[in-house]
Amino acid sequence: MHNAMAVQVTLYLHEDDKWQSKPLHLEILSYLRRENVYAAVGLHAVMGFLGRQRVKTSHLVDAGGKLPVVVIFVDTDEHVERVLPTLKQMAAHRLIIRENVVLEQGNLD
After folding, report:
1. Using one digit for the tens of pLDDT, what is the confidence trace for 12-48?
2. Residue 92: left if φ>0, alpha if ψ -120 to 50, beta else—which one?
3. DSSP readout, 38-78?
4. Neighbours of 29 (CB within 10 A)
5. Quick one: CATH architecture of 4-103?
6. Helix, strand, coil proportions of the chain in percent (round to 5)?
7. C-alpha to C-alpha distance for 99 and 65, rounded to whole angstroms
8. Which of 25, 39, 96, 108 has the fewest CB atoms found within 10 Å of its own CB?
């Protein structure tokens, strides 16, 4: 399927964000796997900032759980519509971006 459309969702989190006392990024990835989302990745940043805070880096002693973690996943519009309400609840205080993308290679089968 060449140039098929899909939806990519990006969630910007902190490494110390929790969901039911567990790391939020791990819980989100587990939820996406259970819901059979096509592809997802969690990226632990070495530096960055969220919410207009100062830049945190992995070599700062006082970074203390505030480094960004980005979760990105791709699937069909219908599947994203189904999982997004739960993700909005899990990461209610964090930035979530949804964008339509073109699959240049591969497919969602």
Report:
1. 998 889 999 999 999 999 999 999 999 999 998 877 7
2. alpha
3. SEEEEEE-SEE-STTPPPEETT-GGGTT-SEEEEEEEE-HH
4. 17
5. 2-Layer Sandwich (3.30)
6. 25, 40, 35
7. 28
8. 39
